[in-house]
Amino acid sequence: MEVATRPREFDERFIGTVRRVMRRAYLLARDHYDPDNGVDGQIFAFAVYKIAARHFDNEIAEVPGAAVVWNSRGREIRIGEKHLRWNKVGHSERDNIETSFPSRSRSAAIAADFNVEQLALGLVDSDPTHWIIAHTGNAIEGLRTLYLAAPIESRNGQVTGWLRWIAIYDGQQPDEPYPALPEPGPIEPQPADLGDFDLRLRESEDDAAHG
Length: 211
Prior knowledge:
Blueprint: H1 12-30, H2 41-59, E1 66-71, E2 74-79, E3 82-90, H3 106-120, E4 130-138, E5 142-155, E6 158-170
Parallel strand pairs: 3-4
Antiparallel strand pairs: 1-2, 2-3, 4-5, 5-6
Helix pairs in contact: 1-2
């Protein structure tokens, strides 16, 4: 991955914090996984989300210009002009980011709507403003892959396409800062391919855990 492809806000310190928080969230959530007693993968994913939220609250303020804020749809990270949420998109490195998306996350779908609006306004030379910290993993192996991904398509309240993504963690190469996961996705899709979009804000609970 060429470092130059990253938005300037996503510097080494920010990415290092994201990696550290998400790895820790998977490790701590593992203690609560007990499928024999009904604490299944869905509850594990929710635990990952909530633990990550707590640790982002504690650590993201150490990154210059970054903060965790609340809006009508729950928590998000703000850094510069960028807005980020965190969503589980799969269970292992076998889940290709190109076709792996948050499930049942209206907040992520609204992020896609905002990026579509940015594209429709002709701001194609600037970075998208809304991103997802997209992670895959499971209770046995922990965090497997981690991406910063900008959603661009949604259908029925679910993200169905990425504008671009940046790989920032591979569980098979945990010390590699820019792992050789799938390369950046399609950049700047043609507006004609996007179809109609609805920019109305919709109320949502803190639904980013689903995956």
